[in-house]
Predict the 3D structure of the following.
Amino acid sequence: MAQYEKRIDRLRERLHEFRLDGFLISIPYNRYYLSGFAADDPQVMEISGFVLVGSDTRAILTDGRYATQAKNESPDFEVYVYTAEPLPTFQEAVFRANIRRLGIESRHLSVHLFDKLAEGLGQKGVEVVKTEDVVEPLRAIKDPPELDCIIAALRVTEKAFKEVLGQLRPGMTEREVASRIESAMVASGAQGVAFDSIVASGPNAALPHAVPTDRQIREGEPIVFDIGARKDMYCSDMSRTVFLGEPDERFKEIYGLVRKAQLRAINGVKPGMKTDEADSLARDIIEEAGYGDFFLHSLGHGVGIATHEPPSLRRIFPVELMENMVITIEPGIYLPEWGGVRLEEMVVIRKGGAELLNEDKTFYPFDEKG
């Protein structure tokens, strides 16, 4: 449990910056990161619990369904159990923690619950303050055990992809292929998928977030895979593009550009670089070739407990890349009615640059000229 104590200490330092003496965590990923309490929220309007942090307080507030789980997973935390009306339990926990200015995660907490807490705690002299991105910057820097979990999830993903790639035949549907990959990941030890798998063939591959359909894959067209496993609560994220049959010149050109852009970014990212600079490493190559309007997303994103977490390697709102961040490098080109190519690797930022985490080498040796 030492890692949770260190994370709580780092959070308390952050609270000083926000002029808070307490913080209520409701986002499931943040709850787990700070406490080990792994319960997910069952429905959009249901929260399985909260972590409360004060200057001398570490507590979990939950209902009877999750009380035993919270005590088992977070033995160093005091557990408060509320009933159908949770406000008295919140008032008791916050009062005992001597909190007068309490931060909440405004990106997650409903307006209804915020108003209820603000009114109910306000009666006890507590100010409830809306905040954003208090815990997330802490999660962006991975410690060694976290990196081990991410790599384990990635190995499961790569194994499943290799297995199913050997089975790939014309006539199989996108949905069938996606199902096989997901089953293979679970059979290899994954808790489940990190996100809904993407298998997109032909024109469907022009959709960056395509959903597998009953379309049959065919020879002579690109097939984009975007897949990831969750293992020990951590995620992986990997994309490959393949071509059944002999690749034609158009595929070679597009694929070669994307791969060249990806390699330039992998070789160029480093600590201290801003995320918009990282994005430009790949985007400049694609734009110079005349396909800039068809690179429809950022270069990549952080991966950890969530598939998408800070930092985002995009052109707006740049932030600094730091050592031990785990990010994806995933340029793509998407051409309507034809298809697309996306190639995604995972790297960890080290002092000297990016350390590649992938072992899979399913790449065509095309250069940008085909």
Q: What stands out?
A: The chain has two domains: 2-139, 141-356. The chain has a mean pLDDT of 95.
